[in-house]
Design a protein that fits this description.
There is one protein chain. The protein is an alpha+beta fold. The chain has one domain. Helix content is 29%, strand content 35%. The protein contains two helices and six strands. The longest helix has 13 residues. It is globular, with a radius of gyration of 11 Å.
Length: 84
């Protein structure tokens, strides 16, 4: 498993995972799955049934999205590395 660490948020990337490029962030009492798009923008996952799992507060979701935006290049690079 690959990891990209931000300020208080760790993004986990699983080997041989499916498209689109995405990472799983554990925060609070749950998990937020974030897509990193080709243009560098980020959004909650659109391919997972639930992009937010568990009891995650709105401010925690916003924090994950901010950190993912700051680390988009690193997350994409690690995701590509984990797919080899």
């Amino acid at each position: 498993m690959g990891t990209v660490a931000g300020r208080g948020v760790k993004f986990r990337i699983y080997p041989k995972d499916h498209f689109p490029v995405h990472a799983h962030a554990r925060i609070g009492a749950g998990e937020v799955i974030v897509e990193v798009r080709r243009d560098g923008s980020v959004a909650l996952s659109t391919v997972h049934r639930d992009a937010v799992l568990g009891n995650v507060k709105d401010n925690e979701i916003a924090r994950v999205l901010r950190e993912a935006a700051n680390l988009a290049k690193e997350i994409r690079a690690e995701w590509k590395e984990m797919q080899k």
